[in-house]
Amino acid sequence: MKNLVYLLLLVTSFVNAQQDIDKEKEKEKLKKLQESKNYTWDANKALSEKDFVNAEADYRKAISKSTENAAAPYNLGNAYYAKETFSEAFSRFKQAGELATSKEAKHKAYHNMGNVFMKEKQYEKAVEGYKQALRNDPTDEETRYNLALAQEMLKKQQDEDEKNKDKDDKDDENKDDKKDKEEDKKEGDNKDDKGDQKDDQKKDEGDKEDQKDKEGEGDKKEDEKKPKEGDKPKDQKGQPEQRPSQLSPQQVQNLLEAMQNEEKKVQEKMDAKKVKGVKTKNEKDW
Q1: Are the C-beta atoms of residues 124 and 134 closer than 8 Å to each other?
Q2: Which of 88, 100, 160, 249 has its CA 20 to 30 A from that of 18?
Q3: CB of 105 within 8 A of CB of 74?
Q4: Which own/partner pairs from 137-142 qualify as long-range (CB within 8 Å, at least 24 positions apart)?
Q5: CB 19 within 8 A of CB 35
Q6: pLDDT band at 240, cuts 50/70/90?
């Protein structure tokens, strides 16, 4: 029984100690939140006095002091937006939307994110930002107007992109056609060059043949200049070679008859000499 009582006392002491710890933590959290709000107030004051440097420093201190102060990053985002530092502004609005616990705070953060996207002409993301803002506050007419404007700008952008795409496709098609024509022209030029080379080759071969013919004619002329075997040499330069006269058939017949008559006379003389001049021997009388 004593042990049970002791155990209960021990548990009660532990619970009370834990509650005290939680109270201290909550107390410390509230303290930091208050410090964060104080830095936010100082930053707002500096920003109203156009002291951006001190305002930015105080906003950063406020953010580092407490993660529950969504106003600090939201106001810093507005300061960056006014300076047209849109990437930093978007980062702070996004941080504010994640830290915000109320729909009103979330609505403001997403609305301003939509504004950043509109400035950067990212209309599709702007549409999503404004839609998210309206989910947290459907009654805000300014957000609704901005959403309609973003949707209209998105449609124009898409139409322009489609038109540019068609133009680019047409340009690419024209480039391809031009390239094909250039390749065809180049191929034709190559064919012409080959044809010219063949013509030049044929011309060279013809020149060689002409040269050979000329050399052959030269050799032939040289051969004609040389006397051939059995030819009669010319007596004088430019004197024509004598040729035997041509006889008519009658003249040939007369010539033959004259030769035959002459031969007959010679034979008769020879026969006469044989009769007269040949001595006969006496036959021996045995």
Answers
A1: no
A2: 100
A3: yes
A4: 137/103, 137/104, 137/107, 140/107, 140/111, 142/111
A5: no
A6: very low
Least confident range of 38-42, 84-88, 267-271: 267-271
Q: Name the amino acid, one letter, at 57.
A: A
Residues in CB range of 126: below 8 A, 6 or more apart? 114, 115, 117, 118, 146, 150, 153, 154
- Whether 239 shows a pLDDT value over 50: the answer reads no
CATH superfamily of 70-163: Tetratricopeptide repeat domain (1.25.40.10)
pTM (predicted TM-score)? 0.56
- CA dist 46 and 58 (Å) reads 9
Report residue 231 as tokens: 């030819």
